[in-house]
Amino acid sequence: MNLQILLSGASGAVGRTIGEVIASNSHFLLVGKASRQQFFEPDVEADVIVDFSHPALLARVIQFAVRRRLPLVTGTTGLDPALERKLEEAAEHIPVCHAANFSLGVNLLVRLAGQAASALGEGFDIEILEAHHRRKLDAPSGTARWLGQEVSKARGLNFESSGVNDRSNRRQARHQAEIGYQAIRGGDVAGEHTVFFLGDGERLELTHRSTDRQVFARGALAAASRITGRRAGMVDFADLVLGMH
Ligand SMILES: NC(=O)c1ccc[n+]([C@@H]2O[C@H](COP(=O)([O-])OP(=O)(O)OC[C@H]3O[C@@H](n4cnc5c(N)ncnc54)[C@H](OP(=O)(O)O)[C@@H]3O)[C@@H](O)[C@H]2O)c1
Question: What domains sit in the chain, N to C, each tagged with a CATH number?
């Protein structure tokens, strides 16, 4: 039987790629689209919503998903704390899978970075560098923040207070208990992330490079296939798809 999918952000770069993957796979059926200009029909029959859009659209999509009791897979980044709370509240009623990155390699990178942070300890300073295409709105990327959460947890640091995004106004040496973020924007870069572990006399760099948005599309659709029929709650992408826990 087809999986009937509502696609939010359908006109965007990732949304268009998801549309192509849906069209090329007889297991999936696109039954509705949302973007700035259009929204799902209120009574459309569907199994799941897949969203790669913008926080403003995601806010509407969350309301729709809860009202219709539809599972939600979302990759939208740049959520403010209020929208993150709305997503968590929605998960009291529907299954929600929200990942800053739906690639297999990045999900493994996040784990490896956490392991490296605790294995190497305080003698290694941690900096995170990310590169994305010129159209990207938020910085640092959702994936860079996710990596930061993982390494700060491994180090026993507070994610928000340990993060440093801008050193231009500071005239002080780097503190051991900080994690630095740098963002490069340009061209058509699909997404690159490096976690640097900088020690005395040696350094480790863990890098992931996405070269094709199909990676996110396939990951999100794999999540969509597995989230239907689940109980309400936040569903971890790695748990759902990778079987890594
Ligand atoms: N989790 C992951 O694996 C992953 C991977 C890549 C990207 N992302 C995230 O996915 C999201 C989409 O990325 P993208 O590169 O596809 O972006 P994009 O090309 O800019 O597409 C954005 C989509 O959102 C809609 N939109 C933008 N602003 C809106 C507004 N104010 N109100 C309502 N709708 C609005 C756009 O509709 P219009 O065309 O009508 O403007 C379009 O459909 C971003 O948050 C990005 O960071 C996540």
Answer: 3-98+213-242 (3.40.50.720), 104-210 (3.30.360.10)
pTM for this entry: 0.87
Kindly indicate the confidence band of residue 208, based on its pLDDT and cuts at 50, 70 and 90.
Answer: very high
Return the ligand 1 atom nearest residue 56 CA. Answer: 32
Name the pairing type of β-strands 95-98 and 233-234: parallel
Q: Determine if residue 69 is left, alpha or beta; phi over 0 gives left, psi from -120 to 50 gives alpha, anything else beta.
A: left
The phi, psi pair for 140, rounded to 5°, reads: -65, 165
Q: Which atom of ligand 1 is nearest to the CA of 75?
A: 1
Q: Is 151 helix (H, G, I), strand (E, B) or coil?
A: helix
pLDDT digits (tens, 9 = 90+) for 99-128: 989 998 999 899 999 999 999 999 999 999
Distance from Cα 33 to the centre of ligand 1, integer Å: 13
Residue 37 Cβ inside 6 Å of ligand 1? The answer reads: yes
In the chain, the largest separation of any two C-alpha atoms, in whole Å, equals 63
Question: Strands 28-34 and 48-51: what pairing?
Answer: unpaired
For the segment 140-166, what is each residue's pLDDT rounded down to a tens digit?
A: 999 999 999 999 999 999 999 999 999
Say if residues 35 and 12 touch (Cβ distance below 8 Å): yes
The identity of residue 108, as a single letter, is: L
Residue 76 has pLDDT above 90, yes or no: yes
